[in-house]
Specification:
Elements: H1 5-20, E1 26-33, E2 43-47, E3 53-56, E4 59-62, H2 74-90, E5 96-99, H3 101-107, E6 115-119, H4 124-137, E7 144-148, E8 160-165, E9 168-174, E10 176-179, E11 188-191, H5 194-200, E12 209-211, E13 216-218, H6 224-229, E14 232-233, H7 239-245, H8 248-258, E15 269-270, H9 272-279, H10 281-290, H11 293-304, H12 309-318, H13 322-325, H14 340-358, H15 365-376, E16 384-386, E17 392-394, H16 395-403, H17 408-433, H18 456-468, H19 472-482, H20 489-494, H21 500-516, H22 531-538, H23 545-560, H24 566-583
Parallel strand pairs: 1-13, 6-9, 14-15
Antiparallel strand pairs: 1-2, 3-4, 5-6, 5-12, 7-8, 8-9, 10-11, 12-13, 16-17
Helix pairs in contact: 2-4, 8-11, 8-12, 12-14, 14-15, 14-21, 15-17, 15-19, 16-17, 17-18, 17-19, 18-23, 19-21, 22-24
């Protein structure tokens, strides 16, 4: 039988008391509320070794530079002042606490604009109306107010009130405790104490409060500050029970341990007991069964978009969660090896390093994000499955649309990048040497019989870049990893014989060649002649496939003759059409 919250808290407190006896002597003092005497604010001492290391069992962790005092911005001071004045105006006996991420980030010296206020004896909606009434009495007006009702089916478990003050949206909720049923991550909610609320949170570093009334930091788990200082990702309660209650916390733990690091001062590390619990079969089953695919996809997207996507995916691989998260469709052809996920992680690692080498300015955030997805799913680029109509669909499409519930454009972009690789690889030798192009067995989807040999490289490159548009650099970077095509790429990747400096040089050389050809924005090229002009030359009364065919021919002519005029293009059309008519 699962431990009750109160029993678990008592056991945790005993363990923390025993652990604290082995800590070194205090050398730094921080004011925060003593959880054993919640009615009094006391100053307690936290410990820090002068060598900046703390021994925890057999492991050594580097000390984090956590600020001992929260420095409020002028805007935050104004917001909190208005809230406290509301308490005084109505003589409310309510304690206001800023919860979770804001406290964590402020202690790490980072700015945070996501302020969540927890109330100990009233609903958020009740309090925001009081704030609105107080502001009106002083001649001020709230910039915005909204009450968002609870919606458990969408993982919105509690009513939240929102108010816009000094151009910041502030969320207000009551303190609560949770009780989970066996087969659902949707808890039963009720009013709770600050201690209840702290222990219901996923991680100790997210369980801290800043008490606005007392200007004190409150650490009800008795270890949130220490874990934050030393970069430890630890659950507030025993990890397996925590993850079985809400398996999404596994992915949140990985994300906070990797992607949430905006400062480069130290790395977070996952607690060993947490890793054991996350990798157990019960938790993996619960993650696949209890959590919506949208929520899983959101967490993965935050990891991929974060500062340490490689570390995040490495954790997912090490915890054997890869195929739980990136679920494949049934009957994939060709069959995917169980160990394929290691190859995916290695491609991701190489791509991440290559992006850094080539200069991050080559990619905007969206291009970088989809570049990393393209690398992650590179080993799956040839895998397909059949839908209900027996149509072959790329397995990558299933992962994006079904496993992660991401937008269709993400899937389309990554699939288009994968499809472009064969063409790009065939062009690289000529782009590097600027010699006459030798077409290998690649399906370009059209014929180029009328293109002069000397212009064929520019024409083919232009058509390719028009297909993938702004993501041509992504495709080029993927191609640089795979080039040349006559090596055993799989074994080469696994052995990590990338020679990334050479691949960076390859990327830059081909990129420069494309600029030299004037094709870097070729998809913005406007046709010299329009459909009506084509119909006049062909003496057609209505459009159709023939017009579309000639539109492609016109584009090909434009790419082959970058200085050509509309009149020259029309002359070429008339001459070519006349020859074809005579031959027929």
């Amino acid at each position: 039988m699962r431990l009750s919250l109160n029993n678990a808290i008592k056991l945790k407190a005993k363990a923390l008391l025993l652990h604290s006896l082995s800590l070194p002597t205090a050398s730094i003092t921080l004011a925060f509320r003593n959880v054993s005497t919640p009615s009094k604010a006391t100053t307690l001492s936290l410990t820090r070794r002068t060598t900046a290391f703390l021994r925890c069992g057999a492991a050594m962790a580097t000390a984090a530079c956590v600020q001992v005092k929260i420095e409020l911005t002028e805007t935050e001071k104004k917001i909190f002042d208005r809230l406290l004045n509301t308490l005084r105006h109505f003589n409310l006996q309510t304690e206001l606490r800023v919860a979770g991420g804001w406290v964590r980030d402020k202690l790490l010296g980072k700015e945070c604009y996501d302020i969540d206020i927890a109330l100990d004896n009233m609903l958020g909606s009740e309090f925001v109306y009081k704030v609105q009434e107080y502001l009106s009495s002083t001649g001020e007006v709230a910039q915005g107010l909204a009450v968002i009702p609870s919606n458990p089916e969408q993982s919105k478990h509690l009513e939240t009130a929102r108010m816009r003050l000094f151009n910041l949206w502030i969320d207000f909720v009551n303190l609560r405790c949770e009780d989970y049923s066996e087969n659902s991550r949707i808890p039963t909610m009720k009013f709770g104490t600050a201690e209840d609320d702290a222990y219901r949170r996923d991680l100790t570093i997210n369980s801290l409060f800043y008490n606005i009334n007392t200007n004190l930091i409150e650490d009800f788990t008795n270890r949130g500050i220490q874990d934050l200082k030393f970069g430890r990702i630890v659950t507030s309660l025993p990890p397996k029970a925590t993850f079985l209650d809400d398996p999404l916390r596994v992915l949140r733990a990985i994300r906070f341990g990797t992607c949430d690091r905006k400062s480069a001062r130290f790395d977070f590390t996952l607690d060993e007991e947490l890793k054991k619990a996350a990798a157990c079969d019960d938790v993996k089953t619960a993650l696949g069964a209890k959590i919506s695919r949208e929520r899983i996809g959101t967490e993965i997207d935050l990891m991929i978009s974060g500062n340490q996507p490689v570390k995040a995916i490495d954790h997912i691989c090490d915890l054997t969660l890869f195929w739980v998260v990136f679920n494949l469709p049934p009957k994939v052809e060709p069959a995917i090896s169980e160990e394929c996920y290691r190859l995916s992680a290695t491609y991701l690692d190489a791509t991440w390093k290559l992006i850094q080498l080539t200069g991050c300015s080559s990619f905007d955030d969206e291009q970088r994000r989809l570049c990393l997805y393209s690398a992650l799913f590179l080993p799956l680029r040839s895998a397909t499955y059949k839908d209900q109509k027996a149509k072959k669909i790329p397995a990558v499409n299933y992962i994006f649309r079904d496993s992660l519930k991401r937008k269709a454009s993400d899937a389309e972009t990554v699939i288009n990048v994968h499809k472009s690789l064969e063409k790009f690889l065939s062009l690289i030798p000529s782009l590097l040497s600027n010699e006459e192009i030798k077409l290998i067995e690649v399906d370009w989807g059209r014929e180029f019989v009328d293109v002069p040999v000397t212009s064929k490289l520019r024409v083919l490159t232009g058509f390719l870049l028009k297909e993938i548009k702004d993501f041509w650099r992504v495709s080029l970077l993927m191609s640089a990893l795979l080039y040349p095509t006559n090596i055993d790429c799989t074994q080469d990747i696994i052995d990590k014989h990338f020679q990334l400096d050479k691949r960076k040089d390859l990327f830059v050389s081909v990129e420069n060649a494309i600029f030299k050809l004037g094709l870097e924005k070729v998809w913005y090229l406007k046709p010299l002649v329009n459909g009506k002009d084509i119909m006049n030359v062909l003496q057609l009364k209505v459009g159709g496939p023939l017009v579309r065919e000639w539109q492609q021919k016109v584009l090909s002519w434009q790419l082959a003759h970058p200085s050509g005029t509309a009149e020259e293009c029309l002359d070429w059309m008339r001459e070519t059409h006349s020859k074809r008519v005579k031959m027929e």
